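Fold these two proteins, one after the other.
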Amino acid sequence: MINLTINGLAVSVEEGTTLLEAAQSLGFPIPTLCHMEGLTPYGACRLCIVQIGQDEKAKLVTSCTYPAQEGLEVRTASNRVLKARKMIIELLLASCPQSKTIQDIAAKYEVRQQRFKQEYEDCILCGLCVRMCEEQMMAKAIGFRGRGETRSVGTPFDVKSDVCRLCGGCMYVCPVCELRCTYNEPEKAICGACSNLSPPCVEKEPFDDMMCYMDPCVVCEIQK
């Protein structure tokens, strides 16, 4: 067994367990878009970042791909983590502002602005559809194409796949295809219709972490 601490709590997990799995076993909420049980961890959306280490040696890692290590100190909701998470949400909103899933996450983590140019694309390259098609449906009908700005998901050479069974699994797992936020306006990337207050504990000294992990936070609900 591997022994580590998450938000100050000691936990023992089996070798090969990821930090995301270890944190979830203790009930700590960590958002993610590209992770799904039964599929290979991919670490594309970056939403599941956590902080490991202390002081100047501390760094952010994706918890869904980072394995638990002996003696590791993990923080899932430090000020640094929450700020980085908000910026990632802003970037996701720039790509797919009409995704209801992303809009809900933005509201939950108090994202009130979007500082990046909106692209109005239909894909965040989370890889869920590709992994679902290959690992669960055993078809490999779709895959990633190109690199960098030209990276996309589809069939080779855009030719209709002979192995696709039209099962719809790719659409079922897609965080963009699941549901569209129709309230969204072109000049307003953030819907705000489902807004929640941010944790007040991380905004006041001397706290650098969330003081509780209740969903929703009792204090936040009282202060609404």
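Now the second one:
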Amino acid sequence: MSPRDLLLGGFKAAVAAADPLHIVPQHLPGPPKGRTLVVGAGKAAASMALAVEQQWPAAAPLEGTVITRYAHGLLTNRITVVEAGHPVPDESGEAAARRIFDSVKRLSKDDLLLALVSGGGSSLLSLPVESISMADLKAVTRELLRCGAMIQEINTVRKHLSLIQGGRLAAACKAKILALVISDVTGDDPTHIASGPCAPDPTSYQDASDILKRYECRIPKAVQDTLARGIRGELAETPKPGDKVFAKTENRVIATAHQSLAAAAKFFEVNGVRAAILGDSVTGEAREVAKVHAALAREVKAHGQPWQPPVALISGGECTVTVRGNGRGGRCVEFLLSLVNDLQGADGIHALACDTDGIDGTEDNAGAIAAPDTLARAATLGLRADKLLENNDGYGYFSALGDLVVTGPTRTNVNDYRAILVEA
């Protein structure tokens, strides 16, 4: 099997390990005495909803609404799938979130709330507090994405501007709650996944304000005023760990990045290549993380330390990109372009970096793939890796080479996946 086929096969194995159609059925409860309401948000929401429909008894009541990203919908019969904006929220998501919130408040103690939570839900499940508008929420989101804030920081702000996130959905519900969660964040803590609509929130209004100040975000006055009122105690805080509102709530993480990395590792090993999992929680600036990975790959190739080649160095997590240029691309192609630039055509080192949701940033690709000849081939086209990196244009670089990885929406999301194959 060629290095390219090995890398693509490992990525496919990682995505398959997080397929909701296989995972969700293992965790479904039996029907309750009363009704079952299904709600959810995230890039995996449609496939999770379909999995519920396929397994739920035909005679048992089932209804609900889930929100997913545009072009991520699926045909369902009993659960309504709504498509909305991501990573910047929009009015479609707001209207659907309001319907979800209102329907949850009508449940009784004999009913069941089945919440389907996955990465991307923070943007999709957007129901701003009364004091701010959707336009205000969009402006704050764009600022936080631009400045390179970590997802946990972005979600801390979102929780304190939302009627539904940060445990507030659970607080509004009288029924028993089971939240099935597909994790796209390092650490797999439900409070950070889709901003934890059914999970306790340990953060505060003060934390949210401090984050915006730290990154020098330009935010609307209505948002400043809302956070200031919360800090003064004029607005209720999000429910905290230990709050009685969570007495009948279970947040169950059913798919993680590490499970997907393990599946990829098994694929490599079956095909005769040792696999080394470097971690499922790699964070930091994508271009800087790539330099560390490049150094490790060179050490393996030159000295056989800490692993003898052939070996696949696999990692997950979520890097950040501080946007300085006007190019196109997301975290994965930024990582890969920096890796190519640092390796400078080192012999026998191939790499792939892709987002498991099938969409890297705002483009149409999951990521890209690189080989020892990538730098030289680009040079014949007049492309310099260092210059395009300065412009944050990883998409333009790999698109010109025909080395983008395009899968379409995978309808799951367990964060970024990276693999560096060091040949013997």
